[in-house]
Amino acid sequence: MKMQNIRNLKISHSNQGFTLVELVVVILILGILAATALPRFMNVSAEAHSAAVAGAGGGFGAGVALVHAQWVANGSSTSSIDNISGFGNDDVDVNTSGWPTDTAGTNVLSTTTHCANVWNGVMQNPPTVATSGTTTDYTATVAGTTCTYTYNADNTKTIVYASATGGVTVNN
């Protein structure tokens, strides 16, 4: 009786795979998607670098303006001051116009070290900056009393700070 029940069972085999045509269609669709999407993603890197520089420049410009505002709020109008009280770590130095120049007791911005100190003094958790090399986010240079911070991931992007006027320009 058992044997007869086993013989009466129908064994069904169904092929559960893709045909060659289906696989070719899927590969073709993926190829078309990749061809249209890849150029768009290639531009994202450049846009990200521009956004990074614009963000850092905006933060730096705001910090410079806040130092100047604190200088005015402290009652200064024509004097250079070491260690502006009430701003950051109370270690930012300013020139006679109230613009940041250093964090080490110098009231005239004239060296790359002054530029790096201003960068770190006016911003909270700033991108890294150095006076030479390319292992940091930015490299500081100086010309007269103007600092240029070059973005090391794309050296065509810069942030320029003029300590004579407090102007911050982002070139991205």
Describe the structure.
This protein has 172 residues and is of the alpha+beta class. The chain has one domain (47-171). It has 3 helices and 7 strands; from the N terminus they run ααββαβββββ. The protein has helices spanning 2-8, 20-73, 112-122, and strands spanning 93-94, 100-102, 129-130, 138-143, 146-151, 158-162, 167-171. The longest helix is centred in the N-terminal third of the chain and has 54 residues, at 20-73.
Short description:
The protein has 172 residues and is an alpha+beta fold. The chain contains three helices and seven strands; from the N terminus they run ααββαβββββ.
Please provide the count of β strands. Answer: 7
Strand order of the largest sheet: 3-4-5-6-7
Q: How much helicity do the residues have?
A: 40-55%
Low-confidence stretches: none
Task: Please state the overall shape, judged from the principal axes of the Cα atoms.
Answer: elongated
Q: What's the SSE pattern? A: HHEEHEEEEE
- Report the total helices: 3
Radius of gyration: 31 Å
As a percent range, the share of strand residues is 15-25%
Task: Please give the alpha-carbon distance between the first and last residues.
Answer: 86 Å
What is the residue-mean pLDDT, rounded to a whole number? 89
Which structural class is indicated by helix and strand composition? alpha+beta
Tally of distinct domains: 1
The major beta sheet can be summarized as:
5 strands, mixed
